[in-house]
Design brief:
Cofactor: FAD
Radius of gyration: 20 Å
Distance between the termini: 23 Å
Keywords: FAD, Flavoprotein, Oxidoreductase
Number of helices: 6
Oligomer: single chain
Pfam families: DAO
Largest sheet: 9 strands, mixed
Protein name: D-amino-acid oxidase
Family: Belongs to the DAMOX/DASOX family.
Strand content: 25-35%
Length: about 325
């Protein structure tokens, strides 16, 4: 039983079902009410360090999304990206080995240079319903129910996958999971085709991610803040920075303002077995991806499935 119907949970459900497991999903929210729904969702390993495990998760996810983009999966495509730097151009990032064609290039003042690369973009309002439909088509039963405890599932499954994000603070007592507030603007697309990032803007982190019919502009990273009402002053600052970075945006219309809470974790994503949380049952945790849920989704789902396969093998022996 997978608990959580966002990108991470539904990816786990599909991966497990494809490997032959009997799978159900319990989700507290419909797709449009999940944290995933608000994500700008461009593949980019933000805020997760450079461990070998993180690289494996990111590489696996990149490869899956690239293949999905090639075969026309709804909501997935490759997008050119420029990461602009205001400081001396650093060495290639740890994740660059996962990205074919990663390169550096010159940039105009006030920038010292740029990284240029092409990565998957996932339009969540299109992709997440497709992923739900894939799960159902494969025979996964999806139920909407808010749980007070993971132990409520002991009569339904031998293995529980905890993909509940921020709710893991209460469902498994992990107080290292904390909300990181992010505010974004959704605007009309005036013809943009390249994603642009300026992480060291003096006013704050700035990105402009054009989708097929709109543009996601961000963003903020505010640890510990839980207010999901968009702040007008923040919105004005985001718009000012974005239009300075990409002047073509001045022709766009602001469509919506959103704020959501990323499920960050001090030690990075938790993907591991837990044999103690529910007596007589195995829990596999998969949460705490912060702003890198899409970027790590398929890789962490494969690790989850591998861990469950180990449990099943031991049980058989």
């Amino acid at each position: 039983m997978v608990v959580g119907g966002g990108i991470v949970g539904m990816t786990c459900a599909v991966e497990l079902r494809r490997r032959g497991a009997r799978v159900g999903v319990v989700t507290a929210d419909e797709p449009a009410r999940t944290t995933s729904w608000l994500a700008a969702a461009v593949w980019y390993p933000v805020g997760i360090g450079g461990s070998e495990r993180a690289l494996t998760f990111a590489q696996d996810s990149f490869d899956v999304f690239a293949e999905q983009a090639e075969r026309g999966v709804p909501g997935v495509r490759m997008i050119g990206t420029r990461m602009l730097h205001r400081r001396p151009l650093p060495a290639d990032p740890w994740w660059s080995t996962a990205v074919p064609g990663f390169a550096t290039e010159d940039a105009d003042d006030p920038f010292t240079g740029a990284w240029r690369f092409s990565v998957p973009m996932v339009e969540v309002p299109t992709y997440l319903p497709w992923l739900h439909a894939q799960a159902v088509e494969l025979g996964v039963e999806v139920r909407t129910k808010k749980l007070a405890s993971l132990a409520e599932l002991t009569d339904h499954a031998r293995v529980v996958v905890n993909a509940t994000g921020l709710a893991s603070r209460t469902l498994c007592g992990d107080t290292t999971v904390q909300p990181v507030r992010g505010q974004v603007i959704r605007a009309s697309n005036p013809g943009l085709a390249v994603s642009v990032r300026d992480e060291h803007n003096p006013g704050g982190h700035t990105y402009v991610h054009p989708r097929r019919n709109d543009v996601i502009i961000g963003g903020t990273f505010e640890p510990g803040k839980i207010d999901t009402a968009p702040d007008p002053d923040t919105a004005e600052a985001l718009w000012s920075r974005a239009t300075e970075l990409v002047p073509e945006l001045r022709r766009a219309r602001v469509l919506e303002h959103h704020a959501g809470l990323r499920p960050a974790r001090e030690d990075g994503p938790r993907v591991e077995l837990d044999r103690h949380l529910i007596p007589g049952r195995t829990v596999v945790h998969n949460y705490g991806h912060g702003g890198a849920g899409i970027t790590l989704s398929w890789g962490s789902a494969r690790e989850t499935a591998d861990l469950i396969a180990q449990v099943s093998s031991c049980a058989t022996v």
